[in-house]
Amino acid sequence: MPSTLPLGDPAPADGVLPPQAAASAGERSFSLYAHIPFCAVRCGYCDFNTYTATELGGGASQANYAATASGEVSFAAGALDASGVPRRRLSTVFFGGGTPTLLPAEDLAAILASAVAEWGIEPGAEVTTEANPDSVTPQSLRTLADAGFTRVSFGMQSAVPHVLRVLDRTHTPSRVPEAVHWAREAGLDVSLDLIYGTPGETLDDWRTSLDAALACEPDHVSAYALIVEEGTKLAAQIRRGEVPDVDDDDHAEKYETADAVLGDAGFHWYEVSNWARGDASDRRFECRHNLAYWHGGDWWGVGPGAHSHVGGVRWWNVKHPTAYAGRLAQGASPAAGRETLDDATRRVEHVLLQIRLAEGLPTADIAPDGRAAVAGLIADGLVDGPAAVQGRLVLTLRGRLLADAVVRRLLP
């Protein structure tokens, strides 16, 4: 969730969506994303819509946040009803941030309970919270599990102290296995998030982080290349020459290393940046919430700056927590703007997202001009030839490294 919001069209105060949103809604999954915008410190690389406690007050305080977010849940249910969108049980719920676990576990449980009270929840639904390793305790994780959370995604990022310092992370490497152990004791599935390509990180450093992550025996690993966003502390440090810039070749080498190490450890890739425990036929530990995004499902995003999507209608909330709380207190939608996607835009987004998945993109979903590029993509080693013959475009390892280039050739 980048800190800069798009412009879009005005969003009505009542939150009612155009008729397109209701069409065929019963055929799509429905999820909830809850944005918790609080962090103990602002990490130097982070461009997300987050705030430290000293930056906020009044209705935007951490103490009041659960009630405010639950207020948007109630607003959402009413707006969807008024839009003619049938009520569907939640298939996934995801708490992201920020650091959701800076709030008391009881507050996260209260937000979840408000959503379940409005919509219900599918049996076996996935309910995830992100967490920093130093923002949980055995008791807080047990409280979350008792409330219906099934999964925790820890922001490990690295196991190397000097890399964590560059990233401004507050935990020590030793805290990660401890937090994972507590989560396991609570009965939660565990994902670990890693970042590669931090200035000053060597290939040996990266291998150390991968080995440390695997030693925790997680169910899922996400590995993201560090992207230096304008306006961040890290961007300023690079501009002043205090730390070296990131390097594309370094990113590629570290991605290939991650794929090999995780594959050897019994993980399969199912999306360019994500690996799950087990072989490709075992999909139990893939992140179902993110798959809902990638497959074009419906979701309502609660919280300041949160984005939502229902039936090709997309909108985003005002960024600042004070403005967000103020709108809800007045009974008005917190949306800052919205857009209704036309068929052409939806097709483009389908290609952009689906090509990143290991299941691949059906060739039939590509326009004729794009299909003409398939032979060249096979010849260049970017998509799997036998899979393409069977009607699906599946990225090779080289293709994953150049996924954006593949998309450009499929969407001339």
Q: What does the model show?
A:
The structure is a single chain. By secondary structure, the chain is of the alpha/beta class. It has 2 domains: 276 residues, Transcription Regulator spoIIAA, CATH 3.30.750.200; 71 residues, Arc Repressor Mutant, subunit A (Orthogonal Bundle), CATH 1.10.10. The chain is built from 16 helices and 14 strands. The strands form 3 sheets. The protein has a 9-stranded mixed β-sheet, with helices on both faces. Strands 10-11-12 form a 3-stranded antiparallel β-sheet, with no helix packed on it. The radius of gyration is 21 Å and the shape is globular. One of its GO terms (biological process) is porphyrin-containing compound biosynthetic process. Its main location: cytoplasm. This is Heme chaperone HemW. It comes from Sinomonas puerhi.
Major sheet: arrangement of strands: 7-8-6-5-4-3-2-1-9
Q: Can you give the mean pLDDT?
A: 92
Q: What count of domains describes the coordinates?
A: 2
Q: What is the general shape?
A: globular
| Low-pLDDT windows of residues | none
CATH hierarchy class name of the largest domain: Alpha Beta
Assembly state of the chains shown: single chain
Q: How far apart are the termini?
A: 27 Å
Order of helices and strands: EHEHEHEHHEHEHHEEHEEEHEHEHHHEHH
Beta strand count:
14
Count up the helices. 16
Helicity level: 25-40%
Strand content: 15-25%
Radius of gyration equals 21 Å
Tell me about the biggest sheet? 9 strands, mixed
